[in-house]
Amino acid sequence: MSELMNNLLFGIAYLILAPVVGGLLAGCDRIITARMQRRVGPPLLQPFYDVLKLTEKQEIAVNLIQDFYVGGFLLFVMISGIFFFTRGDILLVVFTLTLASVCLIVAAYSSNSPYSQIGAERELIQTMSYEPMLLMVAIGFYLATGTFSLSEIMHGHAAGIIFLPGVFLGLVYILGIKFRKSPFDLAMSHHAHQELIKGTVTEFSGKTLAMVEVAHWYENIFLLGFVYLFFVWSAGWSILLGLLACAVVFFFEILVDNCCSRIKWQALLKSTWLVSLVAGFINLLILMYMR
Amino acid sequence: MFLLSLLCGVPLVAALILLAVKDNGTRKVIVKLAAALTMILALVSAWTFYREPVFTFKLAGAVSEFVLAGDVVLCLIIMYLSCRSGRFWIALLALVQTGLMLWMETTTGSTLQVTNDILIDHLAVIMMVIVGVIGSLITIYALGYMEDFQRLEPDIEDRRPYFFFVMFLFLAAMFGLVLSNNLLNMYLCWEITSVTSFLLIGYTRTGEATHNAYRALWMNLLGGLCFAIAIVYLRLRFDTVELDQLLRLGLASFNVTLPVALLVFAGLTKAAQMPFSSWLLGAMVAPTPTSALLHSSTMVKAGVFLIIKLSPLLGDNEAGLLAMFVGGVTFLFASFAAISQSNGKKVLAYSTISNLGLIVCCAGIGTFEAVWTATMLVIFHAVAKSLMFLTVGTAEHHVGSRDIESFDGLFNEMRTLAVCMAIGICGMFLAPFGMLISKWAAMKAVIDAGHPFLMLVLVFGSSATFFFWTKWLGKITAIVPGRKNLEADVHADEWLAMKTLAVLTIVVCILFPWISSAVVVPYLQNVYHEVVEVIGQENLIIMSSMVVLLVILPLLSFGRGHKKLVQTNLSGENLGDDLHYRGAMDVDVPVTLRNMYLENWFGEARMSLAGGALCLACIILEFAQLLGGVAHV
Amino acid sequence: MSFMKKSPWVIHYDGSSCNGCDIEVLACLTPLYDIERFGIVNTGNPKHADIFLVTGAVNAQNVPVVRQIYSQMPEPKVVVAVGACAASGGVFHDCYNIIGGVDKAIPVDVYVPGCAARPQAIIDGVVQGLAVLEAKRKLLAEGKLEELEQKDQLPPLPPQTHVKEDQA
Description:
Chain A has 291 residues and is mainly alpha-helical. Chain A has helices at 2-36, 46-56, 66-85, 90-110, 114-145, 150-154, 160-163, 165-178, 206-229, 238-259, 265-290; one strand at 60-61. Chain C is globular.
């Protein structure tokens, strides 16, 4: 029973804390980026200001339906995060995340604007690129620990990274896509003014845009949770190691973001599938034959 | 037993009556009556036979002579048709297989003792419900569809009596097929379905249709030939023609791999696996109800039905590997090929091929989990895919094209239809809906069985399915202003079928934990004598509550709100209707939005060449190994 | 508490500027001036923007564009006219195609003088615009949307333009 309570507490904590931490991370991101460019950068709380400001704006839309899909996006990102933090099934998390991204893509399609539709298509290509690797992460844990259940994965005998170095590399590679960092920010970008205006979110404004932002915070948190998974096992202090790993990976993604220009979708698809095949699959192959 | 004869008899009688009825009004009444009766009978018999795990029955001896006569008549029909069109080698195929059967009957005489002609387990019950419910809905749909079809294509001779005759004949044969345990009876039904498929593909009598019909015929006959060889082999070597006997022999570690592999091969051709997938693609020239009934939800399922039945004997032997790899490779390459298609029916055809590939692959693995997945996939696929076909058929008639690109603004033109289509698409691939759950289980099954390459096929294949379904979904959900409503003159019959199927898709998705525990698991328990939890019950319930959520949410908040509506962003040059912008030299340029098809990456020719070659190599390799093994022994 | 002043997102449109002011506007984004310190982001999307920076005068070609971008911005919104040309047409004021300052096309809240306007001046102009923005936000928060929209209404089309009626 206490296990259940514990999980429930984790779930509620996620719902409340994830946007806070996610927003702070986004703030850190912007400051670190600024410092890398020898700028001062915005205040740490800037992402919160932005979102709160968006809620104060007049509500406009190109149609009344897009809000529904964007709401679905936020909802299902939250749900998949809850599955993650209540330590449910890792495949369930991945599939719910897919559902969420379908909602976002359909939202962009529904506005029938060229910019958002091209954004939607690029988003689709991005999803097609990273999904095999994301599934391989789940499969990797299954092979390493014999279960898809997150609570058991977290209480394994050894850190996942020992068995899954290749899968981890692949995950770090696709996190660039999920975090919408250069060179993979094809569909929409946090950087100002790209060729697609704002890609997927071009036609959203005010509260709708704020929802997309908050959803990204939620998403980022539990994506970092995947990184965390690789570094924890039954030992208590491994939690610190996990958090450290998250910080390092996050910093690394920012660094890459600032070093790279955007690539074309062809290069994205090719490189991501290649990394999935080389790093992810070979790792899994070895694990499968070790079993 | 009376029930069963009614079940096969009603469609048969209806078929004969419909052949004679020339009047449209009378036909409508008869078709609806027959469809309703068939559906009720299928449900009643499903309920009756559901209550016992396995029901067996022996038919009267005279039936076997009847069946033999049926084989001969069918062979004569095929020979006549193929000789008339100058395709003598098809006639030869038919001649060889019927000759084989006749030779077997005459040389071995009547020594054969058949204990069970009919065997109804839970799998057969599932198939019975699928055929009964979906089949009858599609025949009702066909009433409205064919009316529009003949009106829109005046060049094509109106042969509707013949069309409905073949449709109902097919239903009868399909019932016969899923009920049979005696392979001789099953073989006859198998061949009847091949021929009905051939007849319906060639319905329009255009050059292309005829060509495709003959291609479908010879490929299916090739499978039929292997079926016949398997029967003869079993008869001569083990003195049985019964499916359950075959299973018993195999489980008692007799070497039955060769006949099993032959039967699997027959299943592969029927399920349009690569390299035989081209017949299913060609079959898309047939009127859409045909595609929905024969080429997605039922007839092609006969192939996988047989393979699932055989699955306890599959696994790590040649037959199992044959099914696994051909299925897996087909799944991957057909999914890729679907990306590059913009023709709606072709996308559906490829996705059917790829899903059948997944089912075959799972059945080939042959473990409890894998077969659970395969069975679930059969159910979900039948419902969602037939819905998809029907919606595309109706859209084609009212929008004027079956190209997905022309479904732009379908949400404004035909809202109800677009919603039905979206439900179908979601049912095909989306998270809480069925197909993805089955993929989840498939993944688990593949890993547990230890096949890394199949795992690879699954993860990449499922991301490809995600791509082509979502871009289709996006196309039909786009809100395009200024469109007329085209929905007004859709026939009530069509609505009935589509709405029922849409509701069914949702219901199946919500009830699937129950379907699993009430039908699929008992069947597997009976076959494997154990129960494995494939996906935890609580996860199943979470999934089905997510479907409930997805159904309720739109009802609560869809399209509500009081926001100020503004134009789309066309860089300040929007001409006010969101459909045109002011271009260079002050010219009005229309906004056209097109999807990506990645032709250079996933082009059809390249994919079918690669997939076909791999599958063919696999087939040759496995059979070489098998025959080599037999020669050694 | 209001956040409008803490996160003004900007859209920049080049009317018929000589690019002098444009370069200065972009200079504001560079490390030396770093307007992101104030939470200012150059969005390029009218639907996300709060402040409309226009450089250069408006001409017959771009009047509808300027008006459309402006009307696609959600309230509260502020227009900052950057440079002499944006204020009055500047040295181009009697060109055959020039209609005049930005205020001929849309209501302007802040004028930033200079040819070209210095980055400091531009930043100052935006910051002054924030006060206007905040005032408008208050109106919106009080539910006086109509009053606000009345205030931000497009002026009548200047006579020289040949714009189709439905476009603006």
